[in-house]
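Budget justification, computational time. The allocation requested in the original proposal was used primarily to generate structure tokens for proteins on the priority list. As evidence of use, we reproduce two of the resulting records. The first is shown immediately below.
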Amino acid sequence: MNITVITTFHEPGMVQYGQRFIDSFQQRVDPRVKLKVYAENCKPIVARPEQVTVVDAKEALPDLNAFKERWKDVPKANGTCPWPARRPRDHHKAFKWDAVRFANKTYAVFEAAKDPNTDILVWMDADTYVHSPITYGQFRAMCPATVWLSFLGRNKKWPECGFYHLTLRTPGSDAFLKEFQRVYDEAEQGIFLMEEWHDSYVFWEVLKKIRTQFPQIKDFSGHLINGEGHPLINCELGQFFDHLKGVRKDEGKSRKKDLLKPRPEQYWNEI
């Protein structure tokens, strides 16, 4: 089965973390696993073009362009909480209502899922770092075809969408992708009816609806993480990947205290 990993970033992101992700991917991921980068106004360096493809996000994602054009001047779609009195404790957290900012991720997934040559589609945030070699078989085992979705769950909180996989052309993934895109394309009858509309919250609301009919999913970390946490590095994915979320981008790696228990891999022992 053909595995395609996708990600996206702009030029500042490329400089800070995106190029490092590409370099580590080319160095340590089995070349049978492909990487497709939706680049926003930047040109990352690719050493292995047979494995890594870079496309211009503006040219490749017309539906994203239409979404941004429609909502670019609407405050509620760009980080302004529409009901601050109802959310007195967190209405200032603009990311929760920044649909335009996070739409890059979702529309890249919608577009990549149309590729008939991809069987397993994996989203990975570009602030990921591949710290240890991973074979095709190991990658395949993390994304089994027996489930239509694997994701980073968190107890009492929306999932962390730094990594998830979809087994394409299955009833579950078809239904999920159809509804996921609908709530963006028909935003007034979709995401703006939700309590928040950053991509992870929208992902969770759609998944809760779809999984009742298609329960064949894999949660990497819901049993491990309560609240915020750092799910990727504490589940099986941590044996190969680090996720430099938040201020960790500046530090270049996650922190020892992010681990719920010690990991055996050399990378983690050197932190």
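The second record produced under the same allocation is shown here.
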Amino acid sequence: MKQKFTRIGLLGAAGKMGREITRQISNREDCVVGVAIERKDSPFLGLDSGELAGIHPNGCCLTDSLDAFTGKVDVLIDFSIPESTLKTVRFCCDNKMPIVIGTTGFGDKLSAVTNSSSLIPMVLAPNMSIGVNLSFKVVELAAEILADQFDVEIIEAHHREKIDAPSGTALRLGEIVAKKKGADLKNIAVFGREGRTGPRKKETIGFETVRAGDIVGDHTVLFAGKGERIEITHRASDRSAFATGAIVAAIWLDGKQPGLFDMQDVLGLA
């Protein structure tokens, strides 16, 4: 049986994640970088994406035109910013092209993204790491038993350049716990505390955010009861874990019918 070969298009190809994905793809035999896209004012336009990633030339030079994807890729991977991703999703809908989205921070624009999955296959995940997605399942199990008995706090830390807070992963962890509480996270989340806050309300889920240095990504869900506490923690030491997950998701999505999927589906954890 002939092995499936997936041509992957990269949005944000000159960014940290784009370069890491390019490096990893160069070591695989089941996929290739088909097109590499950057913003119109990028100083890297015209450069070979392989050389930019610190590896051998791959013959794929950075361009700013989404039209370059047409007929040259099977799946897109987008790690950019919400405004750019929204435009890319519209392009994918017009061209019936699957997309893997690692962008976070959509806010009230998220529904514009998810609604498009009725037209195209889409993997949308706040975190592509296989370890983080396993953590989601562990937290779900813990919340099933502890959410109504223990206080729950979520602590996340990232590098100083991250522009959204809390992280999409932290919010997803909160949604998992809130669901087990039978509540909407928007109604029970507490983002930071200051001054005379009074006693903690039992039903709330607290969030604390750290932005410092070059922290790649740390997430801890703290279940605190009387006389004991449980901490479920995932720490990423570099971006390779996220890149691996994104590539696995792209290959999995190739050939799928329209629909909204996440990494739980990709990994068979749903």
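A brief technical remark on that second record: The longest helix spans residues 130-146.
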